[in-house]
């Protein structure tokens, strides 16, 4: 039994002893190194070692359970016992909730090896990270003399161990890692500057792109923004590159989360089974992709992760649910519970992607007579309650199927529901830069606000 | 155990973890075994609790204790940092070894002596009883009362989500220059979100409001304070049920007083942070002494306002906070500095070195940022616009420091027609260019107001509490993002 599992068992025993009728506990231990280099000079090196234990206690009530959560980084036995007592005492002040409780069962016994880390990566030195970042910096500056400065290049590695157990009999743990390299070069011309970035991220260092690829790609993106200008206010087709398209997917995730649905704080509430998007849109969430950045063998309640089709050729096929939001909606958990040491379970996607189409991104741009290719979005102008979307955008203006100049300081606006229905092209270029991935996609028409 | 409010941070860390002046000196001395310009230790012990209400009941509560220490060594532009949540002499020695590895040259280790009372010179936010010591039952009852009040105010209210977050944080900074200062930082925050639906139930809109600051929880528990917050959330949600789509294009914009000060924060404040300017990556780099705003525009960052959410007695490097004039009568005066960037730029630190927690490196950050009041009557400002947009409140914003472009989203806005407020509009986004936008200010109201204490600023993945403020302001020709022609 690992040291983590021992602490989980101590927490569960302590919660029972303090009067909890049910309990669960999660322990996350992580260590990591993060470096940033600007030009040749080191900016910072940060190293960390952390662990946090979270205890959730359920106290009995006439109409349902009461619950509370406590967390601490002090893992001495007395501290764990005190936090368990506090969790039970706090639970007794909250309301009885007929829906509250652990999952009724269905816990996985076997935990597949999902390839979430490579032990050899622990041997990578701080100097190796600094060298990766330096190589990315050099590669970026070598692309063009107009790359004159940078916000730096960052290389980081983080290793974590997660253990979870509950009084319904589940006990499991897994190890994972995440490695990242990012470059943020600045291009300048005629007294104006443009920054952009590119990055690579993976569960193992072997899966990362080379620092040269990262630096070069970042520089090309920054250079492409030079000479950007506004355009006149108009309604045109809007193409999202894989980076900005994945940002749209994250907004959809918030709207299909069981919590947003039962609270009616999602514009999609009540529309399960309906066609809500173009037939080109199929959205899949799969917690068991080997080496996936969102993969995990079990979810935040100990239930096995799995593949969920959220949107199937435009039809809203499934919500993402944990056991609580599932009970609220009369449905079973989809194994989508997310849990940090200090919070109650919530819902998150695991590895979520938009199925790629057959069209290349070049064909999508080439078939757009006049439109806007968006490569950067800023601001938080999205309401899950109404689906209203209005965000700052930058990218390339398209005339006659070709990019003609960079665009900045405009907004694009619409309603996410209408945008999903108006998707008229999905690219073949699915790109994983995190746990949410998209290919290029085009929305037939959106309002672009500028001059 | 929450440390008693009156106990000095130094005493607290000494009694609990054995971190007295002697131990601190020993660890700091060891950081100087390599050549360094500065080294410091940052200790933190925080208690945070929260209760959340939805569907009329408080379903859960939570309580967290966070403790940790960070050891930092600066050599030239370099910073080495190691942090851990184990506070012991042994873990500090290991962390010091890791942090000093940033320097490649042997140093001249001498004994470092830290001395001081461990307290700031004065306290901007004394609190007799930490909010985290107030019985949970009172917090639960507050949220239940809020739910009932919201539903009583308007039958169209469908959902009420309310939360109360209480934080009590004890920090201690010890540095190689002998600095030894601590701070006890209370922070409370109430959030109310209301979803209203029209008679058909199909149209739903949301309204938010909140309040908070570094003061006693007793204030939030009093109906005189929380009832107006609830009323605002209900008013905005129901107002938006009648909102029409926002027009798109360039138009004159009037910003209401208070929270719309987020314009200053995004458009100007971030671009004036010392790190970006030392690295020459800000659209404001090298512009001190130049005109960056219309005459009459004076912008201040002030960390010394009593009880404000963005205020601090000392920053997270132990520097006392101060009032800094960033822009005076339209001319750029200076940048916001932490110790590292001040040293490298050859200026004084401004008390703006802040970090999210012991697990983060400090950076130059804003505290409370606002524009001084001007001469104009707010009603007169509105009447001066024939066709435009009035933005009364915002839900958030973001800026690209390097090209200066900013964007922010209105949560309450109206068309202006012939000098009068027209229909409420939804989904309005304002976009512009930071170095340019304040030069378009044509009217400044006499009604400066600070926000209610709800701001959180994100930078490089770190969140810190901040404040903003603004008088009513007219800005000519700003781009409004919407869906209508």
Describe what you observe in this structure:
- The complex is a heterodimer of chains A (451) and B (485).
- Chain A has 451 residues and is of the alpha+beta class.
- Chain A has a domain at 234-248 and 356-449.
- Chain A has 9 helices and 20 strands.
- In chain A, strands 1, 2, 3, 4, 5, 6 and 7 form a 7-stranded antiparallel beta sheet that branches. Chain A has a 5-stranded mixed β-barrel with strand order 8-15-16-17-20. Chain A has a 5-stranded mixed beta sheet with strand order 11-10-9-14-19, with helices on one face.
- In chain A, strand 1 and strand 2 (41-59) form a beta hairpin.
- In chain A, helix 1 crosses helix 2 and helix 3 packs parallel to helix 4 (211-224).
- The radius of gyration of chain A is 24 Å and the shape is globular.
- The model of chain A has no long low-confidence stretch (mean pLDDT 96).
- Chain B is of the alpha+beta class and 485 residues long.
- Chain B has 2 domains: 9-241, PmbA/TldD fold, CATH 3.30.2290; 249-481, no CATH class.
- Chain B is built from 11 helices and 23 strands.
- Chain B starts with 8 loop residues before the first helix and ends with a strand.
